[in-house]
């Protein structure tokens, strides 16, 4: 009896999730209907946005998830409730688009509204809370990420969302979407990769030479305080001069505006976490370990490569994680100076007052950042286990 009461006691996080679900069901519109893509829309509550069977399915799944979140502490049950809610609400918003829009009207637009986003947030929070309580290993977390990606891909490829305004925006821009996706990834991954090539040796030198470490971190901290759009602007003049006076630079695509200043700015922003974490990671290697390696006759290079770097790797990877996630988000701003990327759709949408065009750029950016964080967190866990095994 005591264990039953403990398993059914009120959970504070779950209570907040239950409140979110309640607000979404009773006080927030599920979708927004607009006569065309740019006019102001009108919200449709869940009862008016779906056929009766769809309303019943979403309400029952939401109530079950709210009850599990608030009263049941067993992680497996909470995860199952979150999955049930997500499986109900995501297809439902696609059904709603076909239900709300008049038949044969090619101009009408239906978009997810606050109610949908609150439900999606509540179920996602419940799933994240359950996964945290389960303390899953890195491989299981990667498998969960792959399963989530496969589910989203299946949803999109099935055509269940084809009538949503977001997918109509994509349909008209599919070619440019994938072109900007490649540009976004090149800016974020390329700048982070170059920062690692430069930052890791700088961090190693900073670890060895105290004066260099102090000066290096001070300079990089100053760079980090410059607002991104200001740094983009600062780089326009020198890169423009370089392109005008060095033919090779112009041939390589370096210009005063475009991808070049965005790439350089992202590279500069990435240096601080990479350099600082390299210095910190190497500084945390126990002196007894390095002394033992020295006693075994290892050279300074051998100690660095075979002992210090493997033990410091989890901390170094944490810095790379910070840099990559940061760059995936900040690459959006590159569109303001012609650098391309998903920010192109964000700023086009703002200029046209088309919220779904904004989401076409914002949602992939958030998804990429989320996936990168999970991948690198799993890799950090694996390297930490390897470091403990070496100890």
Automatic annotation (TrEMBL):
Keywords: Membrane, Transmembrane, Transmembrane helix, Transport. It is found in: Cell membrane. The chain crosses the membrane at residues 12-33, 53-72, 79-101, 113-132, 139-162, 185-207, 219-242, 248-272, 304-324, 330-350, 357-380. It comes from the Bacteria. Residues 181-376 form the ABC transmembrane type-1 domain. It is a multi-pass membrane protein. Its main location: membrane. InterPro entries: ABC_transp_perm/SBD, MetI-like, MetI-like_sf. PANTHER family: GLYCINE BETAINE UPTAKE SYSTEM PERMEASE PROTEIN YEHY, GLYCINE BETAINE/L-PROLINE TRANSPORT SYSTEM PERMEASE PROTEIN PROW. Belongs to the binding-protein-dependent transport system permease family. This is ABC transporter permease subunit. It comes from Microvirga arsenatis.
